[in-house]
Amino acid sequence: xxxxxxxxxxIYFLKLGTWGFGGPVALVGYMHRxxxxxxxxxxxxxxxxGLALAQLAPGPLAAQLGIYIGFVHxxxxxxxxxxxAFVLPSFIMVVLLGMAYQLYGGLAWxxxxxxxxxxxxxxxxxMSACKLTVKSISKFEWAAMKAKWLLWLFYAxxxxxxxxxxxxxxxxxxxxxxxxxxxxxxxxxxxxxxxxPAGILISTGFWKYDGKTLQEIAWFFAKxxxxxxxxxxxxxxxxxxxxxxEFGWLNEHQFVDAVxxxxxxxxxxxxxxxxxxxxxxxxxxxCVAALATFLPCYLFTVTLAPSxxxxxxxxxxxxxxxxxxxxxxxxLVGSVIIIGLRSIIDISTALIAIxxxxxxxxxxxxQEPYIMGVAAIIGIVIKML
Length: 385
Prior knowledge:
Oligomer: single chain
Radius of gyration: 21 Å
Protein backbone atom coordinates (compact mmCIF):
# COMPACT_ATOMS: atom_id res chain seq x y z
CA UNK A 1 0.00 0.00 0.00
CA UNK A 2 1.39 3.37 -1.03
CA UNK A 3 2.04 5.99 1.65
CA UNK A 4 0.37 9.35 1.21
CA UNK A 5 0.31 12.67 3.02
CA UNK A 6 -2.77 14.12 4.70
CA UNK A 7 -2.49 17.08 2.33
CA UNK A 8 -2.79 14.73 -0.66
CA UNK A 9 -5.96 13.18 0.76
CA UNK A 10 -7.51 16.60 1.42
CA ILE A 11 -6.72 17.74 -2.13
CA TYR A 12 -8.27 14.55 -3.50
CA PHE A 13 -11.55 15.12 -1.63
CA LEU A 14 -11.62 18.77 -2.64
CA LYS A 15 -11.40 17.63 -6.28
CA LEU A 16 -14.01 14.90 -5.78
CA GLY A 17 -16.36 17.39 -4.11
CA THR A 18 -15.86 19.79 -7.03
CA TRP A 19 -16.16 17.39 -9.98
CA GLY A 20 -17.83 14.29 -8.56
CA PHE A 21 -21.23 14.05 -10.25
CA GLY A 22 -23.55 11.07 -10.30
CA GLY A 23 -24.90 10.69 -6.77
CA PRO A 24 -23.80 8.46 -3.87
CA VAL A 25 -23.37 5.21 -5.78
CA ALA A 26 -21.13 6.90 -8.36
CA LEU A 27 -19.14 8.74 -5.68
CA VAL A 28 -18.33 5.63 -3.65
CA GLY A 29 -17.33 3.97 -6.94
CA TYR A 30 -14.93 6.84 -7.72
CA MET A 31 -13.34 6.45 -4.28
CA HIS A 32 -12.70 2.74 -4.88
CA ARG A 33 -11.32 3.32 -8.37
CA UNK A 34 -9.06 6.20 -7.34
CA UNK A 35 -7.91 5.28 -3.83
CA UNK A 36 -7.80 1.47 -3.97
CA UNK A 37 -7.16 0.58 -7.62
CA UNK A 38 -5.20 3.56 -8.99
CA UNK A 39 -3.37 5.18 -6.07
CA UNK A 40 -3.17 2.21 -3.71
CA UNK A 41 -3.72 4.42 -0.66
CA UNK A 42 -6.24 2.01 0.85
CA UNK A 43 -6.48 -1.76 0.99
CA UNK A 44 -9.59 -3.50 -0.31
CA UNK A 45 -10.39 -4.49 3.29
CA UNK A 46 -10.19 -0.87 4.53
CA UNK A 47 -12.53 0.24 1.77
CA UNK A 48 -15.07 -2.53 2.37
CA UNK A 49 -15.14 -1.85 6.10
CA GLY A 50 -15.72 1.84 5.45
CA LEU A 51 -18.51 1.11 2.98
CA ALA A 52 -20.16 -1.30 5.42
CA LEU A 53 -20.05 1.28 8.21
CA ALA A 54 -21.47 3.94 5.88
CA GLN A 55 -24.36 1.62 5.03
CA LEU A 56 -25.05 0.61 8.62
CA ALA A 57 -25.02 4.10 10.15
CA PRO A 58 -27.53 6.87 9.40
CA GLY A 59 -26.60 9.83 7.23
CA PRO A 60 -25.31 10.42 3.68
CA LEU A 61 -23.49 7.37 2.33
CA ALA A 62 -20.70 9.01 0.31
CA ALA A 63 -19.83 11.59 2.97
CA GLN A 64 -19.59 8.89 5.64
CA LEU A 65 -17.28 6.79 3.50
CA GLY A 66 -15.09 9.85 2.90
CA ILE A 67 -14.93 10.54 6.64
CA TYR A 68 -14.00 6.91 7.32
CA ILE A 69 -11.26 6.94 4.68
CA GLY A 70 -9.79 10.03 6.33
CA PHE A 71 -9.92 8.23 9.68
CA VAL A 72 -8.07 5.10 8.49
CA HIS A 73 -4.54 6.55 8.65
CA UNK A 74 -4.95 10.03 10.10
CA UNK A 75 -7.66 9.42 12.75
CA UNK A 76 -9.75 12.37 13.91
CA UNK A 77 -7.86 15.09 12.04
CA UNK A 78 -8.01 13.04 8.84
CA UNK A 79 -11.73 12.32 9.24
CA UNK A 80 -12.46 15.99 9.92
CA UNK A 81 -10.43 17.41 7.03
CA UNK A 82 -11.57 14.76 4.52
CA UNK A 83 -15.22 15.36 5.41
CA UNK A 84 -14.88 19.15 5.18
CA ALA A 85 -12.96 18.98 1.90
CA PHE A 86 -15.60 16.72 0.36
CA VAL A 87 -18.60 18.84 1.41
CA LEU A 88 -17.18 22.37 1.11
CA PRO A 89 -17.09 22.78 -2.73
CA SER A 90 -20.72 21.75 -3.23
CA PHE A 91 -21.78 23.82 -0.20
CA ILE A 92 -20.25 26.94 -1.77
CA MET A 93 -22.01 26.13 -5.04
CA VAL A 94 -25.45 25.73 -3.47
CA VAL A 95 -25.05 28.99 -1.53
CA LEU A 96 -24.20 30.81 -4.78
CA LEU A 97 -27.17 29.15 -6.46
CA GLY A 98 -29.33 30.19 -3.52
CA MET A 99 -28.24 33.82 -4.00
CA ALA A 100 -29.05 33.61 -7.72
CA TYR A 101 -32.38 31.97 -6.96
CA GLN A 102 -33.32 34.76 -4.54
CA LEU A 103 -32.30 37.41 -7.07
CA TYR A 104 -33.74 35.95 -10.25
CA GLY A 105 -36.29 33.36 -9.13
CA GLY A 106 -39.16 35.66 -9.99
CA LEU A 107 -37.99 36.30 -13.53
CA ALA A 108 -39.67 34.54 -16.43
CA TRP A 109 -36.49 32.89 -17.72
CA UNK A 110 -35.63 31.43 -14.30
CA UNK A 111 -39.17 30.12 -13.90
CA UNK A 112 -38.90 28.57 -17.37
CA UNK A 113 -35.62 26.86 -16.45
CA UNK A 114 -37.10 25.29 -13.32
CA UNK A 115 -40.30 24.38 -15.17
CA UNK A 116 -38.24 21.92 -17.20
CA UNK A 117 -35.72 20.99 -14.51
CA UNK A 118 -38.39 20.38 -11.87
CA UNK A 119 -40.19 17.88 -14.12
CA UNK A 120 -36.91 16.08 -14.89
CA UNK A 121 -36.19 15.82 -11.15
CA UNK A 122 -39.37 13.81 -10.62
CA UNK A 123 -38.25 11.28 -13.22
CA UNK A 124 -34.72 11.09 -11.79
CA UNK A 125 -35.90 10.63 -8.20
CA UNK A 126 -38.36 7.99 -9.36
CA MET A 127 -35.58 6.03 -11.05
CA SER A 128 -33.33 6.43 -8.02
CA ALA A 129 -36.10 5.13 -5.76
CA CYS A 130 -36.47 2.09 -8.05
CA LYS A 131 -32.72 1.38 -7.97
CA LEU A 132 -32.61 1.79 -4.18
CA THR A 133 -35.51 -0.63 -3.85
CA VAL A 134 -33.69 -3.32 -5.84
CA LYS A 135 -30.39 -2.73 -4.06
CA SER A 136 -31.72 -2.56 -0.50
CA ILE A 137 -34.65 -5.02 -0.53
CA SER A 138 -34.59 -7.38 -3.52
CA LYS A 139 -35.11 -7.65 -7.25
CA PHE A 140 -38.65 -7.50 -8.63
CA GLU A 141 -38.75 -11.29 -8.95
CA TRP A 142 -41.30 -13.48 -7.20
CA ALA A 143 -38.76 -15.80 -5.52
CA ALA A 144 -36.68 -12.88 -4.22
CA MET A 145 -39.73 -10.92 -3.08
CA LYS A 146 -41.15 -13.98 -1.32
CA ALA A 147 -37.89 -14.50 0.56
CA LYS A 148 -37.88 -10.85 1.67
CA TRP A 149 -41.66 -10.53 2.16
CA LEU A 150 -41.39 -8.77 5.52
CA LEU A 151 -39.08 -6.08 4.13
CA TRP A 152 -41.50 -5.60 1.22
CA LEU A 153 -44.32 -5.22 3.77
CA PHE A 154 -42.34 -2.49 5.58
CA TYR A 155 -41.67 -0.89 2.19
CA ALA A 156 -45.40 -0.85 1.31
CA UNK A 157 -46.30 0.52 4.74
CA UNK A 158 -43.74 3.30 4.22
CA UNK A 159 -45.31 4.24 0.88
CA UNK A 160 -48.92 4.22 2.12
CA UNK A 161 -48.16 6.05 5.37
CA UNK A 162 -46.24 8.80 3.58
CA UNK A 163 -48.91 9.30 0.91
CA UNK A 164 -51.79 9.32 3.42
CA UNK A 165 -50.21 11.44 6.17
CA UNK A 166 -47.96 13.46 3.82
CA UNK A 167 -45.20 13.41 6.39
CA UNK A 168 -42.42 11.11 7.50
CA UNK A 169 -42.80 9.01 10.64
CA UNK A 170 -39.54 8.38 12.50
CA UNK A 171 -41.39 6.13 14.96
CA UNK A 172 -42.49 3.96 12.03
CA UNK A 173 -38.92 3.68 10.73
CA UNK A 174 -37.53 2.72 14.14
CA UNK A 175 -40.43 0.34 14.76
CA UNK A 176 -39.79 -1.50 11.48
CA UNK A 177 -36.11 -1.79 12.32
CA UNK A 178 -36.76 -3.06 15.83
CA UNK A 179 -39.41 -5.58 14.68
CA UNK A 180 -37.19 -6.96 11.92
CA UNK A 181 -34.33 -7.29 14.40
CA UNK A 182 -36.56 -9.19 16.86
CA UNK A 183 -37.74 -11.59 14.15
CA UNK A 184 -34.50 -12.14 12.23
CA UNK A 185 -31.72 -11.70 14.77
CA UNK A 186 -32.89 -10.97 18.34
CA UNK A 187 -30.00 -9.58 20.41
CA UNK A 188 -28.66 -11.46 23.40
CA UNK A 189 -30.20 -9.09 25.94
CA UNK A 190 -33.66 -9.97 24.58
CA UNK A 191 -32.99 -13.71 24.45
CA UNK A 192 -31.84 -13.44 28.09
CA UNK A 193 -34.18 -10.86 29.67
CA UNK A 194 -32.32 -10.90 32.99
CA UNK A 195 -29.57 -8.88 31.31
CA UNK A 196 -30.88 -5.36 30.79
CA PRO A 197 -29.60 -3.23 27.94
CA ALA A 198 -27.40 -0.28 28.82
CA GLY A 199 -29.72 1.95 26.75
CA ILE A 200 -30.45 2.82 23.11
CA LEU A 201 -28.55 5.18 23.05
CA ILE A 202 -28.73 41.32 1.67
CA SER A 203 -30.93 41.51 -1.47
CA THR A 204 -30.27 37.88 -1.73
CA GLY A 205 -31.12 37.50 1.94
CA PHE A 206 -27.48 36.65 2.66
CA TRP A 207 -27.64 37.57 6.35
CA LYS A 208 -31.40 37.60 6.91
CA TYR A 209 -32.42 35.32 9.76
CA ASP A 210 -33.80 35.21 13.28
CA GLY A 211 -32.56 33.19 16.25
CA LYS A 212 -35.71 31.08 16.67
CA THR A 213 -35.63 29.99 13.04
CA LEU A 214 -31.97 29.01 13.30
CA GLN A 215 -32.77 26.87 16.34
CA GLU A 216 -35.59 25.16 14.44
CA ILE A 217 -33.29 24.61 11.45
CA ALA A 218 -30.55 23.14 13.68
CA TRP A 219 -32.89 20.69 15.42
CA PHE A 220 -34.76 19.63 12.28
CA PHE A 221 -31.68 19.02 10.12
CA ALA A 222 -29.86 17.27 12.98
CA LYS A 223 -32.76 14.78 13.03
CA UNK A 224 -32.43 14.41 9.26
CA UNK A 225 -28.76 13.51 9.64
CA UNK A 226 -29.26 11.22 12.63
CA UNK A 227 -32.32 9.18 11.71
CA UNK A 228 -32.30 8.73 7.93
CA UNK A 229 -30.58 5.62 6.57
CA UNK A 230 -29.73 4.97 2.94
CA UNK A 231 -28.28 7.11 0.16
CA UNK A 232 -28.62 10.87 -0.17
CA UNK A 233 -32.08 10.76 -1.76
CA UNK A 234 -33.48 8.77 1.16
CA UNK A 235 -33.59 12.06 3.09
CA UNK A 236 -36.09 13.58 0.62
CA UNK A 237 -39.29 12.41 2.37
CA UNK A 238 -37.98 13.63 5.72
CA UNK A 239 -37.07 17.04 4.28
CA UNK A 240 -40.36 17.36 2.39
CA UNK A 241 -42.35 16.59 5.53
CA UNK A 242 -40.63 19.21 7.66
CA UNK A 243 -39.65 21.92 5.20
CA UNK A 244 -42.98 22.05 3.32
CA UNK A 245 -45.58 20.55 5.65
CA GLU A 246 -44.49 21.17 9.23
CA PHE A 247 -42.69 24.51 9.09
CA GLY A 248 -43.88 25.88 5.75
CA TRP A 249 -40.42 27.26 5.00
CA LEU A 250 -40.74 26.45 1.27
CA ASN A 251 -43.67 25.79 -1.01
CA GLU A 252 -43.93 22.67 -3.15
CA HIS A 253 -42.27 24.15 -6.23
CA GLN A 254 -39.41 25.66 -4.22
CA PHE A 255 -38.76 22.25 -2.65
CA VAL A 256 -38.58 20.56 -6.06
CA ASP A 257 -36.19 23.32 -7.15
CA ALA A 258 -34.05 22.59 -4.08
CA VAL A 259 -33.83 18.91 -5.02
CA UNK A 260 -32.96 19.98 -8.57
CA UNK A 261 -30.07 22.07 -7.22
CA UNK A 262 -28.74 18.98 -5.44
CA UNK A 263 -28.87 17.08 -8.74
CA UNK A 264 -26.97 19.67 -10.78
CA UNK A 265 -24.17 20.17 -8.26
CA UNK A 266 -21.34 17.71 -7.60
CA UNK A 267 -20.62 16.10 -4.25
CA UNK A 268 -23.14 14.60 -1.83
CA UNK A 269 -26.82 14.94 -2.82
CA UNK A 270 -27.69 15.85 0.77
CA UNK A 271 -25.98 19.21 0.24
CA UNK A 272 -29.41 20.45 -0.87
CA UNK A 273 -29.87 21.20 2.85
CA UNK A 274 -27.49 24.14 2.36
CA UNK A 275 -29.69 25.54 -0.41
CA UNK A 276 -32.83 25.07 1.70
CA UNK A 277 -31.17 26.66 4.71
CA UNK A 278 -30.13 29.63 2.59
CA UNK A 279 -33.66 30.24 1.29
CA UNK A 280 -35.04 30.05 4.83
CA UNK A 281 -32.47 32.08 6.78
CA UNK A 282 -29.71 33.33 4.49
CA UNK A 283 -26.06 32.31 4.86
CA UNK A 284 -26.36 31.54 8.60
CA UNK A 285 -29.27 29.21 7.79
CA UNK A 286 -27.21 27.44 5.11
CA CYS A 287 -24.30 26.93 7.53
CA VAL A 288 -26.50 25.69 10.37
CA ALA A 289 -28.47 23.33 8.11
CA ALA A 290 -25.32 21.81 6.58
CA LEU A 291 -23.50 21.50 9.91
CA ALA A 292 -26.53 19.97 11.66
CA THR A 293 -27.02 17.42 8.86
CA PHE A 294 -23.42 16.26 8.53
CA LEU A 295 -22.37 16.42 12.20
CA PRO A 296 -24.32 13.28 13.28
CA CYS A 297 -22.79 11.13 10.51
CA TYR A 298 -19.32 12.47 11.39
CA LEU A 299 -19.83 11.59 15.06
CA PHE A 300 -21.24 8.15 14.22
CA THR A 301 -18.29 7.39 11.95
CA VAL A 302 -15.44 8.49 14.22
CA THR A 303 -17.11 6.88 17.25
CA LEU A 304 -17.78 3.50 15.61
CA ALA A 305 -14.70 3.30 13.35
CA PRO A 306 -12.20 2.05 16.00
CA SER A 307 -14.37 -0.93 16.96
CA UNK A 308 -16.21 -1.47 13.72
CA UNK A 309 -14.79 -4.91 12.92
CA UNK A 310 -16.76 -6.27 15.88
CA UNK A 311 -19.87 -4.18 15.21
CA UNK A 312 -20.00 -5.20 11.53
CA UNK A 313 -20.46 -8.86 12.51
CA UNK A 314 -23.45 -8.15 14.76
CA UNK A 315 -26.43 -9.70 12.97
CA UNK A 316 -28.92 -7.88 15.20
CA UNK A 317 -27.61 -4.47 14.13
CA UNK A 318 -27.67 -5.52 10.47
CA UNK A 319 -31.28 -6.68 10.77
CA UNK A 320 -32.27 -3.44 12.54
CA UNK A 321 -30.79 -1.36 9.72
CA UNK A 322 -32.42 -3.55 7.03
CA UNK A 323 -35.85 -3.01 8.58
CA UNK A 324 -35.39 0.75 8.84
CA UNK A 325 -34.03 1.00 5.29
CA UNK A 326 -37.02 -0.82 3.79
CA UNK A 327 -39.52 1.59 5.36
CA UNK A 328 -37.38 4.66 4.56
CA UNK A 329 -37.17 3.74 0.88
CA UNK A 330 -40.92 3.15 0.89
CA UNK A 331 -41.31 6.67 2.29
CA LEU A 332 -39.09 7.94 -0.53
CA VAL A 333 -41.43 6.37 -3.09
CA GLY A 334 -44.38 7.93 -1.26
CA SER A 335 -42.73 11.33 -1.42
CA VAL A 336 -42.08 10.92 -5.15
CA ILE A 337 -45.81 10.28 -5.60
CA ILE A 338 -46.79 13.34 -3.53
CA ILE A 339 -44.28 15.71 -5.16
CA GLY A 340 -44.98 14.30 -8.61
CA LEU A 341 -48.73 14.92 -8.32
CA ARG A 342 -48.01 18.57 -7.57
CA SER A 343 -45.12 19.10 -9.98
CA ILE A 344 -46.40 17.32 -13.09
CA ILE A 345 -48.92 20.00 -13.97
CA ASP A 346 -49.45 19.43 -17.70
CA ILE A 347 -48.59 17.18 -20.64
CA SER A 348 -45.23 18.90 -21.20
CA THR A 349 -43.97 18.27 -17.67
CA ALA A 350 -45.21 14.67 -17.82
CA LEU A 351 -43.30 14.11 -21.07
CA ILE A 352 -40.12 15.68 -19.64
CA ALA A 353 -40.30 13.40 -16.59
CA ILE A 354 -40.83 10.31 -18.78
CA UNK A 355 -37.97 11.37 -21.07
CA UNK A 356 -35.65 11.69 -18.04
CA UNK A 357 -36.51 8.13 -16.98
CA UNK A 358 -35.95 6.78 -20.50
CA UNK A 359 -32.62 8.60 -20.76
CA UNK A 360 -31.41 7.01 -17.52
CA UNK A 361 -32.59 3.60 -18.71
CA UNK A 362 -31.28 3.58 -22.25
CA UNK A 363 -28.46 6.14 -22.58
CA UNK A 364 -25.33 4.55 -21.17
CA UNK A 365 -23.32 6.47 -18.56
CA UNK A 366 -25.43 9.62 -18.87
CA GLN A 367 -25.25 11.77 -15.75
CA GLU A 368 -28.03 13.74 -14.14
CA PRO A 369 -26.56 17.23 -14.82
CA TYR A 370 -26.77 16.60 -18.59
CA ILE A 371 -30.41 15.59 -18.27
CA MET A 372 -31.05 18.73 -16.21
CA GLY A 373 -29.36 20.91 -18.82
CA VAL A 374 -31.51 19.53 -21.62
CA ALA A 375 -34.63 19.87 -19.45
CA ALA A 376 -33.77 23.50 -18.72
CA ILE A 377 -33.45 24.26 -22.44
CA ILE A 378 -36.77 22.52 -23.13
CA GLY A 379 -38.40 24.55 -20.35
CA ILE A 380 -37.11 27.81 -21.83
CA VAL A 381 -38.29 26.82 -25.31
CA ILE A 382 -41.78 25.91 -24.06
CA LYS A 383 -42.26 28.90 -21.80
CA MET A 384 -40.40 31.68 -23.62
CA LEU A 385 -41.21 31.01 -27.27
